[in-house]
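Z., the sequence and structure:
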Amino acid sequence: MITILVEENNTLTPNFYNSLINNLQFHRLTCPCGHSGCLSVHGYYHRYIKTCSGRVCFRICRVKCECCGHTHAILLSSMIPYSQISLENHISIIHNYEQHQSQEPVMNSCPSIDESCIHAIIRKYLLCWKQKLLSERISFTDVPAFVFSCFSHFNRQFMQIKNIPNILFLNTT
């Protein structure tokens, strides 16, 4: 998996994702196997994200490494692998939980997120991520720095539960 770091103010929409993929310099990407300049577009698959405007379909690009033969999805840092809920909403839910605040604002702003989604996120956070963040003193205050810290300390995106290779690419274009 390859995750591209995007600024917080970029909205999570299929048009933004497609624009970023269309302008991406694939020869600059590094495969999780360590080789660079060896990735080419292999195909696409559909993935849904629950946004404030409802459940939105993204056409996720997959690349294949000529060296190791593995395929990798290209995700944005505002997406969490294997989750239909955005990073922004994960952070809001966990922040509200830690501050003992209501989850109503999240559910009101994003009607596709319900109580069962919130409980699942909190459960995964408590089981897999809370102690990791505390041990490295990582906070949510600056989201790009937070994402970078998760990759540098844990080699994966925040709330990524499956332990599969994931590389953060700092897109400079």
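The mean pLDDT is 90. Residues 115-136 form the longest helix (22 residues).

Let me know what you think.
H.
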